[in-house]
Amino acid sequence: FFFFFFFGRKQQQKRVDSCSVVVEREKLSGQLNFSVAEKEKIRTMAVSDMKVLSAVEKSKTMPSAEAMQFLYTVVRRDVSASSDEGLKEKEQAIQRLGELLSEGKLKDDLAALIRFIRPFLSCISKAKSAKLVRNLLDLFLEVDATTDIAIDLCRECIEWAKEEKRSFLRQNLECRLVGLYLASKQYTSALDLGSSLLRELKKLDDKALLVEVQLLESRVYYKLSNVNKSRAALTSARTTANGIYCPPKMQATLDLQSGILHAHDLDFKMGYSYFFEAFEGFDSVNQPVNASLALKYLLLCKILLNTPEDVPGFLTTKLALKYHGEVTEAMSGVATACRNRSLSELKEVLTRYNDEFSTDDVVQRHLEHLYDNLLEQNLLRLVEPFSRVQVSHIASLINLELDVVERKLSQMILDKNILGILDQGAGVLEVFDASATNQTYTASVDTIQMMGKVVDGLYNRARKLS
Question: What is the mean pLDDT of the chain?
Fold first, then answer.
């Protein structure tokens, strides 16, 4: 007891002395002009064992520009490798500065910060340095994830990790590079790097990173329209994820990719359930961009399930109201057009929100299918009263070009959705009445087949008796 008492008093006196030295040094340098009362107040704080605000906590009380300048001074300051508190404070300052630069969309400054801190990373543990580099690179990718600058920066970090012989960090960075190749549509490079990384990770049995790479591989194959390989990669990722703890964000990403593949197979009911799970998962981890994407796919499945009347009700729920914007307005417009079975309204919505739809391959593919179905329904409704009608008249009724209507009617005749012929010379569609099927022939064939089975049975029994 006495040992701990005297040891505690000694440490307390040491804090008081160090605080006094700092105050005197700052006062002599002219940076601070503390009065005797203020100096005494700091001494009292040290004696009462109260912590002085760290650099990160101070920066949170400042405006963004001033906080950046203050944190830059902390980051540029040399810290002794033996000072644990100094290293920790500088590490926190780097992380906070990266967050501020990311919020300000200052990608060049953030890239310069990642390069500047590399000598400092040798002063801290490999686990902390790897986490810091990954966090800063993720912050950079939130600002810019499609240009060559991001790819070059990621390659630089990978080369540095190889030089420092940091295999775990290199693998994480290569996984992010695969994602960058995918975002920039360099699918061949993504598959090459992903394949080599998968072989390495399977030997090391790093399942958490293995799930992420397999999921990226599934997304790359889907972009290349190789649905079978995409489904196989996703199945491998889900199997691997079942054996480990899967973070909510990764689980939501898996659900999103599963929903996309189910929707591709026209299984919209199962796709809707996966998109709903993904939407809730992204919302729980505060990922508004991914949550809006899952919400868009979810509403699309509602429309493709021929229940567009459910869309307005879903958009009024508490969870969906948080993401009200152009995405919800666009999908609500599509739902209204489908509910009214109006082709002109659908074309108007697609034109108005072209930027929202044209950049998404999944939505664009399904909207084309939806447009074709709606066009087919409208043509069937218009052709139904006629036995012989001019194609130009149908085109004027549906307000479409003659070539488009003629091509679609030809397709419907070949698919046997319309019983008739298209006389292109006269520009006329002749529709035939559906002839009643004669059941006598079908019944006769069934009777003959049953008699054949009876004869075969009698023959087999006779052979056994003989």
Answer: 80
User: DSSP letter at 206?
Assistant: -
Q: Give the single-character DSSP code of 145.
A: S
Select the more confidently predicted residue: 329 or 79.
Answer: 329
Question: Are 420 and 433 contacting, i.e. CB atoms less than 8 angstroms apart?
Answer: no
Residue 142 makes CB contacts below 8 A (sequence gap 6+) with 102
Question: Which H or E run contains 380?
Answer: helix 361-383
Residue 180 has pLDDT above 80, yes or no: yes
SS3 187: helix
Two structure tokens written together for 161: 């990790």
At 363-384, the pLDDT tens digits run: 888 888 888 888 888 888 888 8
The type of residue at 113 is L
Each residue's pLDDT tens digit, 17-65:
444 433 343 433 344 454 555 545 444 443 333 334 566 676 677 777 7
Compute the radius of gyration of the chain from its Cα atoms.
Answer: 34
Nearest to 323 by CA among 279, 360, 260, 259: 279
**Residue 456 half-sphere exposure toward CB, CA atoms < 13 A:** 6
For residue 251, what are its two tokens?
């689980």
What are the Cα distances from residue 76, in Å, to 72, 79, 93, 373?
6, 9, 10, 63
CA 421 centroid distance within chain: 48
Look at the chain and count its residues: 466
Q: Distances in Å between the alpha carbon of 219 and those of 191, 231, 299, 424? A: 10, 9, 21, 45
Is 339 a residue whose pLDDT tops 50?
yes
**Exposed (0-12), middle (13-18) or buried (19+): which is 273, by Cβ within 10 Å?**
middle
SS3 421: strand
Global confidence as pTM: 0.72
Q: How far is CA 88 from CA 79, 117, 318, in A?
A: 10, 14, 41
SS3 at position 306:
coil
pLDDT above 50 for 160 = yes
